Amino acid sequence: RKEVEQDPGPFNVPEGATVAFNCTYSNSASQSFFWYRQDCRKEPKLLMSVYSSGNEDGRFTAQLNRASQYISLLIRDSKLSDSATYLCVVMYNTDKLIFGTGTRLQVFP
Amino acid sequence: DAGVIQSPRHEVTEMGQEVTLRCKPISGHDYLFWYRQTMMRGLELLIYFNNNVPIDDSGMPEDRFSAKMPNASFSTLKIQPSEPRDSAVYFCASNSQGAGQPQHFGDGTRLSIL
Question: What is the pLDDT of residue A94?
Answer without folding.
Answer: 66
